[in-house]
């Protein structure tokens, strides 16, 4: 199977030890993920949000590192866990 690219908007909420990730939202395109992340960052209870993409083969579970598309508000400086 060919590699697929997933676009995701991920909100972050404030916590005692920084920020914690919320529920990810899969989007249709990079621009849709960026728009969704911007809205999520402004939503009450969220400190920020990021839009990112991941490309890989879901059948074998191999994915390349996430690519940050855009960050809004207060998000972790290390996003290597995406």
Automatic annotation (TrEMBL):
Domain of life per record: Bacteria
Protein name (record): Uncharacterized protein
Organism encoding this protein: Rhodopseudomonas palustris (strain HaA2)
Lineage, broadest ranks: Bacteria, Pseudomonadati, Pseudomonadota, Alphaproteobacteria, Hyphomicrobiales
């Amino acid at each position: 199977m060919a590699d697929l690219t997933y676009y995701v908007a991920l909100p972050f909420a404030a916590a005692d030890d920084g920020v914690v990730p919320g529920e990810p939202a899969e989007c249709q395109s990079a621009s849709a993920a960026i728009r969704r992340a911007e809205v999520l960052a402004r939503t009450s209870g969220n400190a920020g949000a990021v839009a990112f993409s991941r490309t890989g083969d879901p059948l074998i579970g191999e994915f390349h590192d996430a690519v940050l598309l855009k960050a809004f508000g207060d998000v972790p400086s290390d996003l290597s866990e995406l």
